[in-house]
Design brief:
The complex is a heterotrimer of chains A (291), B (293) and C (428). By secondary structure, chain A is mostly helical. Chain A contains 15 helices and no strands. Chain A folds into 2 domains: 60 residues, no CATH class; 171 residues, MetI-like fold. The longest helix of chain A has 37 residues. With 293 residues, chain B is mainly alpha-helical. With 428 residues, chain C is α/β, with parallel strands linked by helices. In chain C, strands 1, 2, 3, 4, 5 and 14 form a 6-stranded mixed β-sheet that branches. Chain C has a 4-stranded mixed β-sheet with strand order 8-11-7-12. Chain C has a two-stranded antiparallel ribbon with strand order 6-15. About 3% of the residues of chain C have low confidence. Classes of the chains: A mainly alpha (291), B mainly alpha (293), C alpha/beta (428). Chains in contact: A-B, A-C, B-C. The interface between A and B is large, with 113 and 103 residues.
């Protein structure tokens, strides 16, 4: 279809000029990507450099790029103010549980919405869309009250609680399940499979990459969530990295070396994981597409 | 007939499989929203009993210049972030999908902000934007009040928002790009189409469903923006009123000032606004989104 | 594949339940194990955590069946959390109360009546007022009291050849010194920013003005003295030697001061110790003086320092009210207040223990004249409090910022502030 249009309206240029323009095109791509990369990486670099300055150095006019002498006090202060060990552990557990529950529940719902016919399906699906429109700030207090009535504040469960189900995850996986050909499913039914078997044996394995993608998003959403962990878990030892960091911000306001040191310490595990798994992370998503 | 029996069991499975998600959503999200809706018709304060006051909150809201300013701020923020953010993300996804060297390194760099907490992002940008001691003014050799100039502060917030979300959107778009069959490009190559022509005639139509989803998501989250502004624009900032989004206004009214009823009315308005924008998108998608893959 | 996933999901759910039930082995707020009751004690100042823990320790030694956990939450989230806790029955057992909020909490019937456990003769009227509800009943045990002083950088004064601030200083000396310091060193002089207790309130009261008159249910922004003081204070930012509000929205005066970029700012006593600890390289290079006085006050002698004070409180219907009240009583005892002073956390509200706080600085060899904070109690003015304050605080601040940014005139702004507060007071 689209290819026909192209062939119809375009005559082929000479092979030589095509190659030449491709090379110069590549150079432009490199330049753009390089410039963009500098913009992307610079804030991290500045974070790192600032964290080694003293407050007086950081606020020198004009600013010096590198610290005149490398100073580790800010790290000591940040480590003193926040129980980083607990924060790493809590954040890790929260991510693992949220990813597992969303993966399970969203797959089930996504499959049902995409491939099963039942009364009120559209109505129920509209709930998913409505949820995506609601600002998360309004959930916090009511959810907290539910949690409190269960007596579960200051627990890992409290951190996982609002993320047990995910509207976005359901929406995303429904799209994926819709892409699975109906013929495949009908064939399975003809072979005598029941709906559960069609779901688990035929469809579910085909969504591996989408599942990987949604897991990553769930993890990132969970990790960056600020207000909920702050309200749900009042004990600093039960907070997550993000909410702990905001506590640091409340305490040191504009003392940037300490804030930058704290930020770096808080990103360390996520960035390390990301750098180790980034190949799987991105190419996982890519692999399905190429099939 | 076999067909009806199948349908029955199919419906049962359907309800069973969506049950956890639907029940969860009803309890965790829909019920709190209904509560908010009810509160918006009351004079609820921080504690204690409250009375129904009809449309008082809405009347007060529609007469408030601060409210209309916040509404405009939210819309303006979308205008600033969505088109630019999406175009950059699409370009990035296309570049990273092409055959170039060092792809792995570029990917690692561009997606890095994704794994950093918004608090940390806001803090470092606030520091770089600092008009007296910040590196940006130093490099440019200027003295610009990036965060306190009423016209600029919202733009600065938009820059930070794009910076931190371009990686997200690019990942999603990249997954869409990977789904475009290679044969289409091969055919286009044979027909002698340039890369740019291929982009508009092959890539864009094929990736349009993903693109649509990304746009919807980005619009919704931009209209709901709160975190970045809360972290970067403090209560003592002269640009606060010219920058604060609807959700920031809601936060200040409900949690700082303590007028829960009025704050709830702001939320209801925000949801209506998002609903309208989303409906427009779904209506407009027929014209450009290509599901015929 | 299927079985693997099943196993993973099932085990995850099981683990989740285990974690939820066990509370991850840490802090279930109501864990009563082996006859031990755990009380939570929530505060917002990290710098005072050690002090509060020492008091809790002393109490626990006497009451081995009680365990007290001190939790710190930053100021920004403290009130959201407390509100959520109160409305859902999970409020901490003991918590700090601020005069800004106490009236609203007390009047809603949330706080326990503390009049039976406080011996009022040990506290100043200021302290008692700040811990009382609108009905005059004590709803908290006075914790500390504070004043505001003028912090200055000795090195910058020396460099400019200006003599250090002293008790005779007036507003004119403040501006003259600022000017000279800026001209010679290029560093900022007095950093006057849009703040209440650490800013314009002091000047208003020095000139003889007031912020609110709770009896007359009126704001004081139309008062002659208030107007003069505010005009003086706001105009300070028009000088080259004072950063403008844009600056202060991005960089705090404290950070400017301790990086050596500014010579003076107003600071509360409660911040001094942590500033000493966080800036050891500045030891001996800075000091604190009493506030300069108004040279031509409309009323009074031109002296004032706005004094505030916190109290400790508990909820009226808490699960461990009996234990909490007992601990509260201890918090008001001489012993506990002494520990508080000796930890350097804050000046004890308990009359006669002020010196314990002053001595901390000598013991730790911080060369700073903190007696000046104590001296100012002689003419301290109670921080203006009113039940309606939470509802107008931010709006008044917004008006002030509009004056600073020049988007409304000084007269318009003051009129708006007056109207806002008057309306709010009537509404309550």
């Amino acid at each position: 279809m689209n290819t026909n249009e192209i062939s119809a309206e375009k005559t082929a240029p000479k092979l030589h000029s095509v190659k030449k323009s491709r090379n110069s095109g590549k150079i432009i791509i490199y330049i753009l990507l390089g410039l963009g990369a500098v913009l992307m990486i610079f804030p991290f670099l500045w974070m790192l450099l600032t964290s080694f300055k003293t407050n007086a150095q950081a606020m020198q006019v004009p600013p010096t790029f590198f610290p005149t002498q490398w100073n580790f006090d800010s790290y000591a202060k940040a480590l003193e103010s926040l129980p980083f060990g607990n924060l790493y552990l809590n954040t890790g557990l929260m991510i693992v549980f949220r990813v597992l529950t969303t993966a399970a529940f969203c797959s089930m719902a996504g499959f049902a919405f995409a491939k099963l016919k039942f009364k009120g399906r559209n109505l129920l699906f509209s709930l998913i869309l409505i949820q995506m429109m609601l600002p998360s700030q309004i959930f916090i207090i009511p959810q907290f009250q539910m949690l409190a009535s269960l007596g579960l504040t200051n627990t890992i469960f409290a951190l996982v609680f609002p993320g047990i189900v995910s509207a976005f995850g359901t929406f995303f996986l429904r799209q994926t399940y819709m892409g699975i050909p109906d013929e495949l499913i009908e064939a399975a039914y003809l072979d005598g499979a029941n709906t559960w078997q069609v779901f688990t044996k035929i469809c579910f394995p085909l969504t591996k990459t989408a599942l990987a993608a949604i897991s990553i998003f769930t993890a990132v959403f969970a990790y960056t969530d600020l207000m909920w962990p702050l309200i749900a878990n009042t004990d600093l030892n039960m907070m997550t990295l993000t909410s702990g960091l905001s506590t640091l911000n409340g305490q040191f306001t504009t003392n940037y070396p300490v804030l930058m040191a704290g930020s770096l310490l808080s990103m360390l595990p996520m960035v390390a994981l990301y750098l180790v798994f980034q190949k799987q992370f991105i190419e996982g998503i890519a692999a399905t597409g190429g099939k | 007939m076999k067909k009806t029996k199948l349908l029955n069991s199919e419906a049962k499975w359907g309800y069973g499989l969506v049950a956890p998600t639907i029940i969860g959503l009803l309890i965790l999200n829909i019920w709190p929203f209904i509560q908010t809706l009810i509160l918006s018709f009351t004079n609820a304060k921080k504690f204690g009993s409250y009375d129904f006051v009809g449309l008082t909150n809405y009347v007060r809201m529609f007469q408030s210049t601060e409210f209309w300013q916040a509404t405009w701020n939210s819309i303006y923020f979308c205008i600033l972030t969505v088109p630019v953010g999406i175009i950059l993300a699409l370009l990035l996804a296309v570049f990273l999908n092409s055959k170039i060297k060092g792809k792995v390194v570029f990917r690692a760099i561009y997606f890095l902000p994704m794994v950093v907490a918004p608090v940390a992002v806001a803090m470092v940008w606030k520091w770089m934007f600092n008009s007296n001691y910040g590196i940006i003014n130093d490099v440019l050799g200027l003295h610009i009040d990036w965060l306190t100039n009423p016209h600029l502060a919202i733009v600065s917030c938009a820059v930070v928002s794009i910076w931190s979300s371009v990686g997200y959107d690019a990942v999603l778009l990249l997954s869409g790009l990977q789904n475009v069959p290679k044969t289409l490009y091969e055919a286009a190559d044979l027909d002698g189409a340039t890369k740019i022509q291929q982009f508009f005639h092959v890539t864009l139509p094929m990736v349009s469903p993903t693109l649509f989803m990304v746009i919807i998501m980005r619009l919704m989250s931009s209209l709901k923006v709160y975190d970045i502004m809360y972290m970067m624009i403090s209560e003592s900032n002269p640009a606060l009123l010219d920058t604060q989004s609807l959700m920031y206004l809601f936060y200040r009214e409900s949690f700082v000032i303590g007028s829960k009823g009025y704050g709830s009315a702001i939320v209801v308005w925000t949801v209506v606004l998002i609903g309208i924008v989303t409906a427009l998108q779904f209506w407009g998608q027929k014209k450009w989104v290509n599901y015929d893959v | 594949m299927k079985r693997l996933w099943k196993t993973i999901i099932v085990s995850a759910l099981v683990l989740l339940t285990v974690f939820a039930v066990s509370g991850c082995g840490t802090t279930d707020e109501n864990a009563d194990t082996g006859g031990t009751t755990t009380l939570t004690f929530r505060i917002w100042d990290t710098a005072q955590k050690d002090g509060m823990e020492k008091i809790a320790q002393a109490y626990m030694e006497k009451n081995p069946n009680i365990k007290i956990e001190v939790q710190v939450t930053s100021w920004d989230e403290y009130w959201t959390k407390l509100e959520a806790g109160v409305t859902s029955g999970t409020a901490p057992d003991i918590f700090w109360m601020h005069p800004n909020e106490i009236l609203e909490y007390a009047d809603a019937g949330i706080l326990a009546d503390c009049s039976s456990i406080v011996d009022e003769s040990h506290y100043s009227d200021n302290s008692i007022n700040l811990a009382s509800g609108s009905d005059g009943t004590l709803y908290g045990v006075p914790k500390d009291k504070d004043t505001v002083g003028l912090v200055y950088n000795k090195e910058l004064f020396d460099a400019a050849g200006v003599s250090y601030p002293n008790a005779d200083w007036t507003w004119d000396d403040l501006t003259a010194a600022s000017e000279k310091i800026y001209d010679t060193t290029g560093k900022y002089g007095f950093m006057a920013y849009a703040d209440e207790q650490l800013g314009y309130w002091n000047f208003v009261y020095q000139a003889g003005g007031y912020i609110v008159d709770t009896e007359a249910q009126k704001a004081g922004f139309e008062d002659e003295a208030t107007k003069e003081a505010l005009e003086f204070y706001i105009n300070l930012q028009k000088n080259d030697w004072c950063p403008d509000q844009n600056y202060f929205a991005q960089t705090s005066p404290g950070d400017t001061f301790f990086s050596g970029n500014g010579a003076m700012f107003l600071e509360g006593d409660w911040n001094i110790l942590s500033e000493c600890e966080n800036n050891p390289e500045m030891n001996g290079k800075w000091d604190v003086a009493v506030l300069p006085k108004c040279p031509n006050p409309v009323r009074g002698d031109g002296r004032a320092s706005v004094s505030n004070g916190l109290c400790n409180a508990t909820t009226a219907d808490g699960k461990h009210k009996e234990e909490a009240m007992d601990f509260l009583e201890f918090l008001g005892s001489e012993e506990a207040q002494r520990i508080q002073g000796e930890s350097g956390a804050a000046i004890p509200a308990y009359i006669g223990l002020e010196q314990t706080w002053v001595d901390v600085f000598k013991e730790k060899n911080y060369d700073i004249d903190v007696e000046n904070f104590i001296e100012m109690f002689d003419y301290a003015v109670t921080s203006p409090i009113d039940k309606s304050r939470p509802s107008w605080k931010t709006a008044v601040n917004a008006q002030l910022l509009k004056i600073y940014s020049g988007s409304q005139t000084y007269e318009e702004g003051l009129q708006n502030m007056q109207d806002l507060v008057d309306q709010a007071m009537v509404g309550y």
